Every structure is written in C-alpha cells, then in structure tokens.
Amino acid sequence: MSEHTHLSQVHGLRGELRESEPMARHLSWRAGGAARRAYLPADLDDLALFLRELPADEPVCFIGLGSNTLVRDGGYAGTVVLMHAPARRPILSEFPAASAVPWR
After folding, report:
1. Inside any domain, residue 97
2. Per the structure, how many domains does the chain have?
3. What is the CATH number of the domain that holds 82?
4. DSSP annotation of 96
C-alpha cells in the first residue's frame, strides 16, 4: 500500500489530500515546482490527526498565504500543509503555552 493510499484511507480525515500539487497555485510569485503531497486541513483537529498519521521521517512544510515563499522548480519532496484559509488558522488562545510565550 502506498503512503498516499494509507493517508487517504485514514478514518476521520476531513481535509483535502492532493498528490503532486503545483506550488505556484499557492505562492504570491506564482512560480515553483510541485510538492509531492499537499494537505488542506478542515480544522485544527483534522490537522492533528493528519500529522499523527504521517511517517516520522516525512519532511513537512507549513505554508500560510504564500507571500515571500519560493519553491524551487524541482519541487518539494515532502508534504506541504496549506494553512491559508481562515478556518485552518489556529487560534493562539487555544494553546495553553501561547499565553506564556513573550511576544518579543
């Protein structure tokens, strides 16, 4: 069974898993190669479930709005988690440690 098949069959995942996702669609410069896999989580719980199911040695990169981000033409040989939709952005107050972390 391939990793993609494994991840696409994880019970409870509600986000969208894409193979060979062109990163140019998600970057302000509209340039760059494809990520081996991209995941658009439905919410924070969905993201946590997805990350638990990834192989421990899987390279992971989180992309927000894609500003000031470049992906080489050869792409990214790992998983990109796309966090640009408001429903996917974690609310820092939901994390107990966030209140104890100095801003500057």
Report:
1. no
2. 1
3. 3.30.43.10
4. G
Rounded CA-CA distance 88/82 in Å is 8
Q: Do the strands 76-82 and 34-40 form a parallel or antiparallel pair, or are they unpaired? A: parallel
Residue 32 near residue 26, CB atoms below 8 Å: no
Q: What is the mean pLDDT of residues 32-41?
A: 94
Phi, then psi, of 33 in degrees rounded to 5: -80, -170
The total of other beta-carbon atoms located within 10 Å of residue 76's CB is 21
Beta strands in 1-104 (DSSP E): 16-22, 34-40, 60-63, 76-82
Give the Cα separation of 36 and 75 in Å (integer): 8
- Rounded CA-CA distance 98/36 in Å is 32
- Grade residue 87 by pLDDT with cuts at 50, 70 and 90: low
